Amino acid sequence: MAAFAITIDDIRNAAEVIKGQVLRTPLIPSPRLSQLTGADVFVKLENMQPTGSFKERGAVTKLESLTEEERRRGVIAMSAGNHAQAVAYHARRLGIPATIVMPEGAPLVKAENTRSYGARVILFGETLYESADRARQIGSDEGLVFVHPYDDARVMAGQGTIALEMLADRPDLDQIVVPIGGGGLISGIAVGAKALNPDIDIVGVEAALYPSFQNAIAQEDRPIGGATLAEGIAVKTVGQLPLPIVRALVSQIILVEEALIERAVNAYATLQRTMAEGAGAVGLAAMLAEPERFKGKRVGLVLCGGNIDARILASVMVRELERDDRIVSLRITSNDKPGLLGTVASRLGDLGANILEVSHGRLFLDVPARGVSIDITIETRDRDHTLEVFAALAADGLAPRRIDSRGLSETAF
């Protein structure tokens, strides 16, 4: 194996360092996700760590390497959330003062959690790059040790302990699918896994809006930026230490679109009954994007984090119901006669549809003066059930028209 920033011995040493300080998370079989993807899926549940992500492994490995003088002065880090929480949590546990610089748009739940662990939190800049510049400036001014989230050999070695655990539990894995942000996680896993099984296939996954490694390795110039559900891997600049490892040991980088990331988050919640943030779900999204790449293989998914805002998770789940035509809005326009709304509600109940919302209007200009429009949002079992409901309402002479994201449909459904 080529000379990289870390070796298998570094990862094994990190495993000894973190023992008893970081949870050894389970690698569990997932029959439901296997059925969904056509592969034999095993999920590494890093969302079970106390701070909800794998970042604790690298943070502890780095913090434990500090001298007594460095511990006294304290540490500083920049992060969009998970690295911040991990550094803050373990710094407090080890008695080390911690300052964290986070982008101003960092998820509120992650910023508040970081503060709750006792760190000084500074919100600065729109991007992680701007936060990093500010963190380095503060670190230089105050004599703090900079704890980089991915471009640090000890951090990379700590993240690589995941590979040791996965292959100890399932040495017969054919593939490991890993989210890529700055590259610390996948580089550590790649070095560890390839040392134990040179034939194992390491697949990386980036959000399509942030193809930083794809650009660097394939010498492409895809645009980078935008609002992504996978903010934990929304990195514009790749790690210089991870880059040669990824180039040499990762067989493919798959770019996944936002709709598939949402679908994967929803699948983890509804099929696996576990929380996955956007970055944690991109591995599953890659399997949904390219099922033939994984079909019939024993695949290890690294669910790297579960710190998703409850409001965002609720929105994702509702959006998936809408995509599956299980939540649908429709409009009925008719003569304004007593009992119409009750008749429609009773009919929908008879058809097994659950009414979520009703708007009853008489003042729209596209409705006759003696007419009424009723906008109804219903929940059904599936798309076939929705079609049955629309067909029945049409047969009753109610002429339902679907309302979708673009407005009122010209067709019934």
Provide a descriptive summary of the structure in words.
- The chain has three domains: 8-50 and 158-320, Rossmann fold; 55-146, Rossmann fold, CATH 3.40.50.1100; 326-408, Alpha-Beta Plaits.
- Helices cover 45% and strands 19% of the residues.
- It is built from 17 helices and 15 strands.
- The chain has helices spanning 8-18, 31-37, 55-63, 68-73, 82-94, 108-116, 128-142, 153-169, 184-196, 212-218, 242-249, 258-272, 278-289, 291-294, 310-323, 340-350, 383-395; strands at residues 27-29, 40-45, 75-78, 98-102, 120-123, 145-146, 175-179, 201-207, 252-256, 298-303, 327-335, 354-361, 371-379, 401-404, 407-408.
- Strands 1-2-10-7-8-9 form a six-stranded mixed β-sheet, with helices on both faces. Strands 12-13-11-14-15 form a five-stranded antiparallel β-sheet.
Fill in the keyword field for this structure.
single chain; 413 residues; alpha/beta; Rossmann fold; Alpha-Beta Plaits; six-stranded mixed sheet; five-stranded antiparallel sheet; 19% strand
